[in-house]
Amino acid sequence: HRRHRIATIPGDGIGHEVIEAGQEVLEAAARKFGFSLNWTEFDWSCDRFQNTGQMMPEDGIDLVREYDAIYLGAVGWPTVPDHVSLWGLLIPLRRELDLYANVRPVKLFEGVKCPLADRKPEDIDFVVVRENVEGEYSKIGGRLYEGTPQEAANQVAMFTRHGTDRIMEVAFDLAKRRRKHVTSATKSNGIVHTMPFWDERFKAATARHAGVETAAYHIDILAAHFVLHPDWFDVVVASNLFGDILSDLGPAVAGSIGIAPSANLNPARKTPSMFEPVHGSAPDIAGKGIANPAAAIWAGAMMLEHLGETQAAEAVINAMATTLAQNETRTADLGGTEDTRQSVAAVLAAL
Ligand code: NAD
Ligand code: IPM
Ligand code: MN
Prior knowledge:
Elements: E1 2-11, H1 14-33, E2 35-41, H2 46-52, H3 60-65, E3 69-74, H4 82-96, E4 101-107, E5 125-131, E6 141-144, E7 152-155, H5 161-176, E8 181-186, H6 194-208, E9 213-218, H7 219-228, E10 235-238, H8 240-253, E11 261-265, E12 273-277, H9 294-306, H10 310-325, H11 340-350
Parallel strand pairs: 1-2, 1-3, 3-12, 5-10, 8-9, 8-10
Antiparallel strand pairs: 4-5, 4-11, 6-7, 11-12
Bound molecules: nicotinamide-adenine-dinucleotide, 3-isopropylmalic acid and manganese (II) ion.
Family: Belongs to the isocitrate and isopropylmalate dehydrogenases family.
Pfam families: Iso_dh
Catalytic activity: (2R,3R)-tartrate + NAD(+) = 2-hydroxy-3-oxosuccinate + NADH + H(+); (R)-malate + NAD(+) = pyruvate + CO2 + NADH; (2R,3S)-tartrate + NAD(+) = 2-hydroxy-3-oxosuccinate + NADH + H(+); tartrate + NAD(+) = 2-hydroxy-3-oxosuccinate + NADH + H(+)
């Protein structure tokens, strides 16, 4: 009997609602496919910060190291400045566990209304592979001359050969299991010093992977192509900040960010990988029970896949797709009238 130990961190806002929803679906999949999931919940959140002054305990990272995977809702709430909550929880989880590949699939599902005219599901099916531990999100920099007229803020974007090469590797490996095409998100036309280096490493990766077709676009026109030509893309490899932006733009083009999942992977499996929706805590709808659980459910399916439960993962995605295709089982972000519970019930029925 297979047993997987999962650390859950619901976090803040709708994080609680969608993680509970996801757990229900994953439990049903586990029963159906004959394995078990042992959940341990951690209350790390902005609430915890307000009570204790810390988002997570000192030894938090070591506590979750022991698990097979981490299932996270969302981090951030208006009561705590985002730079405090994020540097206190989400960012250390990604960095200290070296979850350097953030894999974010984008897909237009049958039945989901696409904001672009005349686009069919086969037109939008790509994956953003986002570098997740360096680049523009570096710790180097801060506030200068605080409180003076010369006050300023700066940040050094850090791109290492090791960090850049290994994210390229993840992108090309993934492309080989898909339609064998990788697009690089760049901005090497002059002013951004790091990007000519990014391009060199992309070229080096291209040379290592014969049989994979490539393209490269500056991030500005790439954003436009996501809207105008989403069918051009299979795997898109991007730096931390560019990947962050593209992984909200992509899902918006495919109907809703309420569907988009995210796998923070340590491909060598030296640490537990972490699975979460792309979206945040959604303070505007939190507590109302109307969040779309699809992103958390799909992220849960990616977790099952990572744990080797391939059949269960497929069944969860199929159940979710069936539900999305049914007009009467959609949440408000998709133009429907269902709440989170009703949407979960529909996925369970389909499963
Ligand atoms: P957000 O993703 O929380 O919300 C953006 C908009 O999308 C809101 O209108 C929200 O209602 C809607 N939305 C998001 N998820 C939805 C869902 N499942 N169903 C229906 N509608 C949904 O982004 P934001 O408002 O920029 O950020 C809010 C907080 O979340 C901030 O503190 C931010 O830092 C944090 N955040 C955390 C993560 C994360 O933990 N990975 C990701 C993004 C934002
Ligand atoms: C995401 C989020 C985070 C990021 C924020 C909350 C730090 O937007 O997971 O996409 O920028 O990585
Ligand atoms: Mn983001």
